[in-house]
């Protein structure tokens, strides 16, 4: 139960950070966040390529739960979130949100 509450709290904090980042960076109402579970290397590449990204690091259990909760919080249709075993095997350590329309120039 503690892990679930922790993931809930982390998801709420992540959504709060997304809203703040969108406001600070002047997102238009039709601009949307893209969510991904990534490795350290992929996280660095996405942060370098896209302006305004928000990142959270967590255990496979927390990342799986957070991905689902954040997706619901953003009113995105449910997609196939990676299961805990896949997250661990692929060494996915981060949940990252970025706007694919805002590439760095």
Q: What report would you give on this structure?
A:
The protein is α+β, with helices and mostly antiparallel strands. The protein has one domain (2-98). Helices cover 50% and strands 14% of the residues. The chain is globular. The mean pLDDT is 87.
Helices and strands in order:
Elements: H1 2-24, E1 34-38, H2 40-49, E2 53-57, H3 60-73, H4 84-89, E3 94-98
Antiparallel strand pairs: 1-3, 2-3
Oligomer: single chain
Large-scale geometry: globular
Mind telling me the C-alpha Rg? 13 Å
How many β-strands, per DSSP? Answer: 3
Could you say how many structural domains there are in total?
1
By helix and strand content, what is the structural category?
Answer: alpha+beta
Q: What is shown here, in short?
A:
The chain is an alpha+beta fold and 105 residues long.
Relevant terms:
single chain; 105 residues; alpha+beta; three-stranded antiparallel β-sheet; 4 helices
